[in-house]
Design goal:
Two copies of one chain form a homodimer. Chain A is mainly α and 212 residues long. The first copy, chain A, has eight helices and no strands. Chain A binds a DNA duplex (18 and 18 nucleotides) through residues 2-3, 10, 14, 17, 38-40, 48-52, 54-55, 59-60.
Chain lengths: 212, 212
DNA sequence: GTCTATAACGCGATAGAC
DNA sequence: GTCTATCGCGTTATAGAC
């Protein structure tokens, strides 16, 4: 009962250690691969013994879960910052750029978020929540374009959103699989991102929108 | 020196064991995840001791390599069969369907081929060769459409091919990540495959092809 | 209570001797 | 083909230090 609410020095120190564990985990995954994360290696880097990590995370999968949540929050926030720094008419494009840029700069977390590379790992509802919010934001961006007459209302249907995410995920996954060392700016596939956006606008062009 | 060329009964038996190992490996990866393949589990299923597997494969990564090659060959052949069973005008679409259908039916191998889920695994040149052939086939399909006036010549440029593979890979990866239990026929994302094909034809429409 | 260490269990990949 | 052995892993139990 005494452990409930106590935002004192100790819990701050504890949170700091948790963040360090996550930082080191990401760093190791970057060099060794997402699925090659080793608790022993994390502990070594932190000057700890492996069992000590269990004070902070109940299992290895719990670390993956925390990383999933971290990544989803960062993507969501990157999109929102991009939105808040752009004119309404540019917000969809700005958010898409911010998303792509973040993914290229955080490929390890991107793999964890969008592929399923870890056997047995399913994100918890809490970890998944910010991802849902990010998707809701995307829907809002599309709705805004519908309201301003730039897109047909069908763009915000389930199919429209699925098409949008499939095309962006496709460019991204080709880029990461074939040219992972590239950046957002110079990637061979990355430069197709504006192209698929243009194709999306074309397909859901208003007033004379057509479907076969 | 006596082991060089001897296509007799023994080498047939040996090849049979190799195929069994690969079959069991795929079966286990289907239930446990691509990265969770365990040589001990494979050996158990085959009634062998784990070290015996090293008579057939020098390491676990060599098994992944053989599976990569197997998958690439099967995709290439599925595309070619689809091509040979279709009218020239339908061959691109038929090959795309055959490709998608194979991927949904062989998700484990698809992950191995198109994502990089195994730390330290890079396909060998021999394993990669059939994948290169499959890509060359795709280029030939596109060229055929260009020659028959259905597509602008730019469709076979590096950008055109990258766009084509990115869109198909995107639909596929969204389907596999979000609805892996679906089939080629009923997948929510899978039904976007004809849509992206239509969008591709639209973008590389000949005679009045335009680019911003 | 909170953190850390040590010891130990079971499992995995793999090398070497038979 | 097997058996034995080594090493590293995730994890648990336990006990001592702050």
């Amino acid at each position: 009962m005494s452990t409930a609410a106590a935002p004192d020095r100790r819990s701050r120190r504890r949170q700091q250690t948790i963040d360090e564990i996550l930082d080191v985990s990401v760093a190791l995954m970057e060099t060794e691969g997402v699925a090659a994360l080793s608790l022993s290696a994390v502990a070594r880097r932190l000057g700890m013994q492996p069992p000590s990590l269990y004070q902070y995370f109940p299992s290895k999968l719990a670390i993956y879960d925390a990383l999933f949540q971290r990544g989803a929050e960062q993507i969501r926030d990157a999109q929102r910052e991009a939105r808040d720094g752009a004119e309404p008419a540019d917000q969809l494009s700005a958010a898409m750029n911010a998303f792509s840029r973040w993914c290229m700069a955080n490929q390890v977390l991107t793999q964890l978020l969008f592929w399923r590379p870890i056997p047995g790992f399913e994100p918890s509802p809490e970890a998944f929540a910010p991802a849902v919010e990010g998707l809701a934001d995307l829907k809002a961006f599309l709705q805004q374009e519908v309201d301003s007459g730039q897109l047909d209302p069908r763009a915000t249907s389930d199919d429209g959103i699925a098409l949008f995410t499939a095309m962006t995920a496709g460019v991204l996954s080709q880029q990461m699989a074939n040219e992972p060392q590239a950046t957002f700016e110079n990637g061979r596939f990355m430069k197709l991102m504006p192209v698929v956006l243009e194709m999306f606008y074309q397909r859901y062009q208003p007033t004379r929108g057509k479907e076969k």
